[in-house]
């Protein structure tokens, strides 16, 4: 699963990857991430949503193709 996740992370653009990293690894709140990146609270939510979706799709694709 680790290699699947690593490859899935490469499908994200920098903004999505930054938000995901700050939320899950640095354990910042959405507002803290918004402040750190200089974007709105809503942008953080949008990027996180897109990132999650892309990761799920990439992992599912790998699982189906082996």
Any overview of this molecule?
- The chain is mainly alpha-helical.
- It has 4 helices and no strands.
- The mean pLDDT is 92.
Q: Give the helix/strand class.
A: mainly alpha
Total E-strand runs? 0
**Overall pLDDT, averaged?**
92
Strand fraction: under 5%
Overall geometry: elongated
Residue runs with pLDDT of under 50 for 5 or more positions: none
Bin the helical content. over 70%
Report how far the terminal alpha carbons are from each other. 12 Å
Largest sheet: none
Write down the secondary-structure element order. Answer: HHHH
Q: Total number of helical segments?
A: 4
Radius of gyration: 13 Å
Quickly list its features.
about 70 residues; mainly alpha; 4 helices; about 0% strand
